[in-house]
Amino acid sequence: MARAELRRTDLVYPEESFAIVGAVYDVYNRLGHGHAERTYQKAVGEELKKRGFKFQEQVYSPVVYLEKVVGKNYFDFLIAGKIVVELKKGDNFSKTHIEQVYRYLVSKDLRLGILVYFSPRKVNYKRIVNL
Prior knowledge:
Strand content: 25-35%
InterPro entries: GxxExxY
Distance between the termini: 30 Å
Helix content: 25-40%
Protein name: GxxExxY protein
Strand order of the largest sheet: 1-2-3-4-5
Number of domains: 1
CATH class: Alpha Beta
Organism: Candidatus Doudnabacteria bacterium RIFCSPHIGHO2_01_FULL_43_23
Pfam families: PDDEXK_3
Radius of gyration: 15 Å
């Protein structure tokens, strides 16, 4: 089979996702484990810049109830105006963190979030889709 025939058509933003995850892996491979989330965030920001991504950091996402702001959230990255990236330290995906990223997607009417965990042994990531 030709490579083009193996390409999936059901993924949301596959090329961008691949490049973002590659950037995260490069940061982990260079820094290793044990750093604060904020350190990883700064390093990932530098790596995204190096790769030519347009992005915003610490994006404000208000919690609105009955047309009033009742809370506020900030997510780590909004890449190309369409992909949320949230960085965490830990070994396992938490339902709370997955729900957190999903809420960000819904609040900004976006389709894809990538939740990244920097663990002592490796980088884990999960794609979260808002259809």
